[in-house]
Amino acid sequence: MGVLGGSFNPVHLGHLVVARTALLAADLSEVLLVPAAESPYKRGRPLAPAEDRVAMLELALACEAQMRVATLELERGGVSWTVDTLRELSRPGVELRLILGSDNLPGLPGWKDIEQIFELATPLVVLRTQEAPTQLAAAVEALGSEMGALLQAGFCPMEPHPGESSLIRAGLAGGEPDGGLLHEGVRVYIERRGLYGEGTL
Fold this sequence. Notes:
The protein is of the alpha/beta class and 201 residues long. It is built from nine helices and six strands, in the order E-H-E-H-E-H-H-E-H-E-H-H-E-H-H. Helix 1 links the parallel strand 1 (2-6) and strand 2. The N and C termini lie far apart (33 Å).
């Protein structure tokens, strides 16, 4: 089972490409997309309401038979630590794979209880940018030989895919098109709900 966390504020096609790439590369049974109540690394940044982020995820995943939304972090509330989520998902006989976009790599060695994270779930790293190989090498070195080897073994290459939620939000706030980076249902939902308009970032 793959686990892909994030703010999903909003979910965009880059998230789906990462999930699909991991699903196929590791032959996963399913991928859970887990929206954070509050990201520990983005504290103070405004988020769309939880119910809206969940609704957008459900729209984006409507045709993805092996992906589903898991709301355990929203139900738990507070800061959403990855280690707590993996503890909650851990079950006998279920192998967890933690899906990481390469944009997570620079901060990964400083994540809370990183050693236990690697005990609970095997990392699966999807390289999203041209800088990713350098980021991966730096993270491997910082984590040490055992965790670094697991991280490197989970390398999952893909073509760099544009898509960054902060840039999409900025574009929407300025009345600019999303550049085709939003699922059509998500784009319509954002317009209907008036999310990410001017003054909402």
